[in-house]
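no rush on this but wanted to send it before i forget. theres a chain ive been looking at and ive put its sequence and its fold in token form underneath. i want to understand how the tokens follow from the sequence so walk me through it. thanks a lot i owe you, the record is right below:
>
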Amino acid sequence: MSKGIQIRFQTPLEHFALDVDISIPATGVTVLFGPSGCGKTTLLRCIAGLHKAEQAQLSINDHIWQEPGFYLPAYKRKVGYVFQEPSLFPHLNVTKNLLFGQRHSKKTSQLSLEEVSQLLGISHLLQRMPDKLSGGEKQRIAIGRALLSDPEILLMDEPLSALDFSTKAEIIPYLEQLHERLSIPIIYVTHALSEVKSMAEHIVLLEKGKVTAQGPLKEMLLDLTAPLARFSNAGSLLDAVVSDYDTHYDLTEFSVDGGTVTVPGAVGPIGTTKRIHLSANHISLTRTPADDSTIVNILPVTILEIEQASTAQCNVRLQLGEHNQILARITRRSKDILALKVGNKVFAQIKGVSLVKL
């Protein structure tokens, strides 16, 4: 059997049926994305064996967990499950909460308590009781407990939804490190696009129990026929390498395939790879590069595709360098005035760059 996760579930829900047939990668972070109530959590529960789908086929790499005539019960599935609420044992300190999952695993976790504590930044919390922890600290403990159960797959059901903005910002860097350190797949449920942009490598879009689109995140953001390109905060992701820092003006320069991008502040040592987001609404197009503009990020691009996004606007997919593509959103009037067509070589004026991977 080929490596990867094969998921096929059909089961009735209250207002519609969950009907999913997908294949996702065996490593990295796959995000289940969609509005509240679209079936994301039920799909996660079907994978964990907490909800028994009427018709199902589920295999994790070469291990069959469910098929017609066979159902591996939940307690035998090697799943690490992180819920919206951390649900720590109030009478146990952090160390004992962390090791609770390990006690119920038949073999020692690939990760030690010390490694998990360092990975999640909780080494200084090991002797504390749960009532002395912040919301972000509790959620990191819950993640650590799941990791120490030696799972074959980590399921995360909107782990940041109960946290405020500042606490989310505190915990996201730890989540970003998980898939870099772990070789197991992570399936992450959210309806927050900011979390998608920060962590996802693969995305599955759900609506009323059905998959509307799926694929590598970078490709899905650029698919003008897919839902993500029509969002008001649509954009594109680039992997960028810190190439220079201007101490006088406090500006960091990134090298990307196709040019350089400058952002305010010192964001990392030279040679560090970051993930940056370019908002489609913050990119304008011009026939000639401006030399008297306050916009410093102006890159040569080629128009690959133009698609109407609304009565007033259209999305433009652009080739940047040899391997990168970005998305711009302009008015239909601007497109007509500049007579923009596929194949035109133009310049992208980037008014804002967001750093989404710290």
User: Anything to note?
Assistant: DSSP finds eight helices and 21 strands in the chain. The longest helix spans residues 165-181. The chain has two domains: 5-230, 235-357.
